Amino acid sequence: MSFQRRTQQPLKLMASVSSMLSAQQALRATADGVGLVRTELLFAGSDEEPSVYAQATAYMRIAERFPGKPVILRTWDPAEDKVLQFLAARPKLPDAGAWSWRGIRCYRNRPDVLDRQLGAFLQTAELSKAQVHVLAPMVAQIDEVAWFAERARQRGILRVGVMVEVPALALVISHILSMVDFVSIGLSDLSQFTFAASRAIPEMSDYLDPWQPAVLKLVDSVARSCAASDTPITICGVDGRSGALVAVLAGMGVHGVTLPASRLAEVRQFMSRVSGELCRSAALTAVSCGSAGEAKTAAYAALRLHNGAGGQTLM
């Protein structure tokens, strides 16, 4: 396993943003950038597609607060809990179908909608001093990556990436890295799609434990491929309650982790106390385990922490 990229640069602790309030919180928390702007939440419930001007204005208000830092803008990702009427291109789907009709699938047959959002992204990149990146969600096939990357580059976008949240894409990741400038793993969705376990069902929580070996192995596999091709990789959907998990991700070679702004200070403090060597050891150990509990216990041991009463605990 190669950790060359990890040792060359410190792990970026970034924040997720879905409103101006969360952007301000990220700024106060001195985030290393914005790892994910959930653009659909900025316009949630919109009956009409916002104009390019309205979009660019909203994105600029966020980007201008992070000069010189990465700001990753995600294209529309509507879902049942974040409805965009102007992308409701199909009749109401049954619960199972709601999983399927998201992200790039909503506008692959509406390229004009994507083009207008890309135009707003480009204005943001040109007018702000942030390092604007553009990211497509719910990508599952190689041809989808090629379609999106070509369309974004034709419109002048310089930093183009895709989200790895569908296991199908993780399994063919080596075939798409030459098409993109970076990838971002969506840990929450990767977990629920791997285990066919909806986040909306409390009884599924055990399946969605981020320490599940199946998910850790998928993340590790993607990180290895990215290291081999020198492709930057970030990860979002990490709630930040376990600094040990962030350390494991860093040990796998992830370059940036996106967290809630409220968790940044604690995770930053924790990461300042663990070495790259310990992170690598924790990653190797956790990936080799057979259950979520074993992986977490092994990682804590590798990081020289105590996971229980009577000793040092992590957050």
Question: How are the elements arranged and paired?
Answer:
Layout: H1 4-8, E1 12-17, H2 20-28, E2 34-38, H3 39-42, H4 52-63, E3 70-74, H5 95-100, H6 104-107, H7 111-127, E4 131-136, H8 142-154, E5 160-164, H9 167-171, E6 182-186, H10 187-195, H11 213-229, E7 233-236, H12 243-252, E8 256-259, H13 264-271, H14 276-287, H15 292-302
Parallel strand pairs: 1-2, 1-8, 2-3, 3-4, 4-5, 5-6, 6-7, 7-8
Discrete helix count: 15
Largest sheet: 8 strands, parallel, barrel
What is the mean pLDDT? Answer: 91
> Count of DSSP E strands?
8
The CATH architecture term is: Alpha-Beta Barrel
What portion of the residues fall into strands of 2 or more residues? 5-15%
State the separation between the terminal residues, measured CA to CA: 29 Å
The CATH topology annotation reads as TIM Barrel
| Proportion of helical residues | 40-55%
pLDDT < 50 runs, ≥5 residues: 1-8, 308-313
Counting helices, strands and paired strands, the structural category is: alpha/beta
Helix/strand order, N-terminal first: HEHEHHEHHHEHEHEHHEHEHHH
Strand line-up in the sheet with most strands: 1-2-3-4-5-6-7-8
Tally of separate domains:
1
Shape: globular
Q: Output the radius of gyration.
A: 19 Å
Please name the fourth-level CATH homologous superfamily. Phosphoenolpyruvate-binding domains
CATH class: Alpha Beta
